[in-house]
Flavin oxidoreductase
Amino acid sequence: MIATLSDIESMEKSFRTNLINHLSGGKAVHLLGTFNKHGQSNLAIFSNVIHVGANPAMIGILFRPVLNDSHSYKNIQANKRFTLNQIPASMVQAAHQTSARYPSNTSEFEACGIEEEIIPEFEGPFVKNSLVKMGLIWEEEHVIKTNQTILIVGKIQYISVEDSILLPDGHIDLEKAQSVSAGGLDSYYQLNKVAQFPYAKVSADASHEPRRNS
Amino acid sequence: MIATLSDIESMEKSFRTNLINHLSGGKAVHLLGTFNKHGQSNLAIFSNVIHVGANPAMIGILFRPVLNDSHSYKNIQANKRFTLNQIPASMVQAAHQTSARYPSNTSEFEACGIEEEIIPEFEGPFVKNSLVKMGLIWEEEHVIKTNQTILIVGKIQYISVEDSILLPDGHIDLEKAQSVSAGGLDSYYQLNKVAQFPYAKVSADASHEPRRNS
């Protein structure tokens, strides 16, 4: 299929939504945990997550335009704190269910049967059975003018990685972790490692640092 | 492993780089094609790609802080046009090699053995053997203050998806496409579909639209 701008603009709405959401490929997906001002926990699935930097350690999440039921966004505004939890394949159905419109006085942990974990090191609701968890503090945010989505950048304050999937060099074995990536809005994929390469160098030039963003 | 902020700050540098780059999980990864002002093509691998919106159709890419050899960023500044091309598993080694520091007068297409495709519908170098290709125009950008990385948001002007992986509802079969996702800076994973779910609804409330960002 070939589509130009006018083709894209005239596509049937749900076809376009599915298609455009798949163009980015297999995307990082997380469960984002927050508390509201009454201490009520909230959990929601987000597939628009990017690595922003390793030092300081930062991650960005894109939020849709703020509406009355944007609980995660509003909780972060209020508390400046949130958690991100990788999703193992065994939890994918419950994780997807967090995207339903639960009222603000309902915890998706309870409603979706996901075990909540509270720890002394970081104030935020974690997903107990996630193998890779982070606690973050709001650092900055940017409104995308064209569609009013909002990129929140958080600084990582706390990390928990199950020992069995952490390699000595800092890699995480995402296949062994059975972590999922998302395709579009409703599909989930498990990861099978196909390759790992050394830092790429121009053949006659072995002295340079790698060019990739870190 | 549990790490607090002071633990993270005192980690050995390459361990921290690997670890933090893996926390986001299996990430969308693309080959980004540009032309410089002399018409010289450039191709570089980017794993910090997010879906921004379906209507208008937009994608964001995070660039590291601008340096002399930030060819992709500078070319986009000059031409406002770029392409994104999903990476099939068969091309992953050549795709990774584009991250080497080639001089500005070298095309990574040639240097890495990746076939370039020029089309009449959109001015930009595409990856011929990619099954999912987009042509985008620069729409806006945002500097992340904390580390000077730059989010460029592009509006999708042109889409090419191989017919054999496009489903009637607009989904792309990322498993059949053999698309890869990235783990950290140097690992690549193929995708095996584990689940697809209907729009999640609160059980007693079937009338609402889904809450997920589209």
